[in-house]
Amino acid sequence: MYKLENLIKLSLNETNPDLVLKGGNIVNVFTNEIIKSDVAIDNGIIVGIGEYHGKREIDVANKYIVPGFIDSHLHIESTMLTPKEFCKAVLPRGTTTVIADPHEISNICGLDGINYMLEESENLPMDIFYMLPSCVPCTEFESNGAILKAKDLQSLINKDMILGLGEMMNYPGVISKNNEVLSKLKLAIDNNKIIDGHGPHIKDKELNAYVISGVTTEHECSTIEEMIDRLRLGMYILIREGSAAKNLNDLIKAVNKDNISRCLLCSDDRHPEEILNKGHINHSIKLAISKGIEVIDAIKMATINPAICYKLKNKGAIAPGYDADLLIIDNFNNFYIEKVYKKGILVAKYNKPLFNVVYKNSYEENFVNTVNISNIRKENLQIKITSEKVNIIRVLPHSLETKKIIKRVKTKNNKFTFDKDEDILKLAVIERHGKNNNIGLALVENFKLRNGAIASTIAHDSHNLIVIGDNDEDIICAVNEVKRCRGGIAISSNKKILESLPLEIAGLMSSKDIEFVNLKFERMLDIAYNYLNVNKDIDPFMTLSFMALPVIGDIKLTDKGLFDVNKFKFIDINNK
User: Residue 421: CA atoms inside 13 Å, Cβ hemisphere, count?
Assistant: First the structure.
């Protein structure tokens, strides 16, 4: 940074700054005003607001100048893109800073996975900060590829790109005062770091205990009641609009002038086709405005609010001393972002990136050889039925939640058999880290897939191989294709592969560019909806990926078996 004397000279315009944006309508997030003025920028920093002359002047009269957007919580791996390709996708849409949690890749590759994400995020024209994964493994109820303890995270906690401890999903461990969980919380607290939450359904004294343990944020609220409970205890609420979980429509109704300073926007898990076709955080802002939130208030939820929450001192506003992360927007009716400046440099224009990134030519074996499963045969997929009724996972629309239902199913020789007249599918989670060859089996309702199967190595959070289908032949065919691709997504019908998307980096991300990934993914979505007739109220791939996460919903499936989330224990598929 310049010496203080130089900054003062620039602010007084005794010397000319590098760049002046002339005559724009500045969105002031401190006073909820729009002020017509110049913005003076030097060395990537805003040095003045007012009337300025600069070495270079750009006329932005009648345009709006807005702080760059901040995504307060996401998993880059869920975009199926590397950090570099992710940057190319979201920066032109106004996101200049993100706060990411790399717990997807760390559940497979451990510390190596975190270091890979840190390395890939360097020297990009956007700021990617990280929260250290708090739950690797997510729970003891599934098999994953690595274990990270507090002592493992110690070496990373004070890196510049690390803001704190990622979402604490093991809330039972907090409540029960588990020593390892408390060690991780203490690591963050002792180093003055933020702790993210993940505690749906916690209430009353248990919620008090969760908050007093240091947890500051929550992105898993799905009801207004949950949101208000947490706001009253001083938590920040990260309102999520992802590909599967879309909570903004419900939660935005509770946002008002009294609590908006504690409300942020996040994407959590968002697929590339939605980013390219609908947008990123800019989409959430537009949606909030359409639901009655005032324009500047909606902008604040993606700028100054996350900056304050995550202690990003010089981000989120347009004022002297702040980073010149700025957006030029034509009008607030269509909210079209014409230009994006990152630290005073034009990095995107008219939805196109103006920068190139350097790609690796190869990846280490521990990142590309992560799918280790035995050959799957029909006998591995048989579900024994010994009761009149069985426990079934019911998929819910636009949600990561599930509901446990109990009903009769068709059987033959005391084994489940597919019934074309019933919407009951077979779900399998196959351990893929080469540890134990576990296969968990369950039944699913309301996915509505017909005549095929979908398999994927994206299965939160341990990312075993998950597959759903209405016949064993296509289930096996899809599994074998994913195995051949060294990870990814595959669709099978009539024992033929209709399409597949290789995700060779840890079975989560593609080494290809976003155009390749998006083209493949859009074709797969079309096949899922229009050929396999998957329920159009769900995202087939994102919904499938969360059916193995045993911390959300009534009932989920891991490689170890059917899991009742509310009781926090395994249950038999047979309802006895």
Answer: 2
Burial class (CB in 10 A: 0-12, 13-18, 19+), 575: middle
Angle CA 192–197–199, to nearest 5: 150
Residue 156: which of 144, 147, 165, 145 has the closest Cα?
165
8 A C-beta contact, residue 561 and residue 574: no
Instruction: Say how far apart CA 406 and CA 197 lie, in whole Å.
Output: 32
Could you tell me which residues come within 8 angstroms of residue 542 by beta carbon, excluding any fewer than 6 positions away? 78, 242, 243, 244, 269, 271
**pLDDT in the model for residue 138:** 84
- Pairing verdict, β 56-59 and 19-28: parallel
Burial class (CB in 10 A: 0-12, 13-18, 19+), 145: buried
**What strands, in cross-sheet order, belong to the sheet with 569-570?**
555-558, 561-564, 569-570
* Amino acid letter, residue 228: I
Q: What is the pTM of this model?
A: 0.92
Distance CA 349, CA 262 (A): 32
* 64 close to 329: Cβ distance less than 8 angstroms: yes
Mean pLDDT of 200-227: 96
Q: What is the mean pLDDT of residues 404-426?
A: 95
Q: Cβ(237)–Cβ(261) under 8 Å?
A: no
Q: Which two tokens stand for residue 55?
A: 């070495």
Cβ count near 397 (within 10 Å): 12
Residues constituting the chain? 576
162-173 confidence digits (pLDDT tens):
999 999 999 989
Output DSSP code: residue 414.
Answer: T
Q: Are 109 and 146 in contact (CB under 8 A)?
A: yes
* Cα–Cα distance list, 332 to 7, 28, 306, 328, 501 (Å): 33, 15, 21, 11, 37
Q: Cβ contacts of residue 31 below 8 Å, gap of 6+?
A: none
For residue 234 the two structure tokens come to 């001083």
Specify whether the CB–CB gap between 22 and 49 falls below 8 A: no
pLDDT digits (tens, 9 = 90+) for 526-552: 999 999 999 999 999 989 999 999 988
Please identify which residue in the block is written with the tokens 């968002």: 270
Do residues 167 and 460 lie in contact, with contact meaning Cβ atoms separated by under 8 Å?
no
Mean pLDDT over the full length of the chain: 95
pLDDT recorded at residue 232: 98
